[in-house]
């Protein structure tokens, strides 16, 4: 999977941003000062990958969390407050190609675009145009279950939040599916 573009809107620190990634490069490095949004970009990518994982039976896909709404700094009468921007909701959109994940016997999908939105504090995540990407994920999940060879995308990163969490035991007591890496990556 190659991510071409990521668009977070009212997501964490980003009001409405576009990040374009070099599709010819095999590695992307994010560099920036503390609190500039590097981990937020990676979290947004994780949410987008959650659409691919939606049809995996053994995996819980990553969703937009209610605390990821952008907080706008408002100064009124000498008081500064941070106001959640629920009127616009929070959304993350992505454009990517899956050419490397699809074998020569499948039709090449070219470029896909999809998004996730959360429009209210009490609402649920809404997927838009995500059926294609979820379908490819479901096909890969089925191939794993049959023991067929299939490439599975992995997004691995560590945010600074890891510094405050106790280390948890992730030892497996018995053999498990190849998709276990998706479950272990969600251990908090």
From TrEMBL:
Residues 6-133 form the Rad50/SbcC-type AAA domain. The keyword Nucleotide-binding applies. InterPro entries: P-loop_NTPase (IPR027417), Rad50/SbcC_AAA (IPR038729). Gene3D superfamilies: P-loop containing nucleotide triphosphate hydrolases. Keywords: ATP-binding, Nucleotide-binding. One of its GO terms (molecular function) is ATP binding. Pfam families: AAA_23. This is ATP-binding protein. The lineage of its organism: Bacteria, Pseudomonadati, Pseudomonadota, Gammaproteobacteria, Oceanospirillales.
């Amino acid at each position: 999977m190659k991510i071409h573009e990521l668009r977070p809107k009212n997501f964490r620190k980003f009001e409405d941003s576009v990040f374009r990634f070099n599709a010819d490069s095999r590695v992307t490095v994010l560099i920036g000062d503390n609190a500039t949004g590097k981990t937020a970009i990676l979290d947004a990518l994780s949410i987008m990958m959650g659409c691919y994982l939606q049809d995996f039976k053994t995996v819980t896909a990553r969703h937009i969390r209610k605390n990821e709404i952008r907080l706008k700094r408002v100064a009124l009468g000498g008081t500064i407050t941070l106001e959640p921007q629920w009127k616009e909701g929070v959304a993350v959109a992505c454009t990517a190609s899956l050419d490397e994940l699809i074998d020569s016997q499948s039709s090449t999908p070219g470029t896909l675009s999809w998004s996730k939105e959360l429009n209210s504090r009490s609402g649920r995540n809404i997927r838009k145009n995500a059926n294609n990407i979820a379908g490819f994920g479901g096909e890969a999940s089925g191939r794993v279950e049959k023991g067929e060879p299939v490439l599975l995308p992995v997004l691995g990163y560590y945010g600074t939040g890891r510094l405050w969490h106790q280390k948890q035991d992730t030892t497996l007591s018995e053999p498990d599916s190849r998709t276990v890496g998706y479950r272990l990556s969600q251990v908090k």
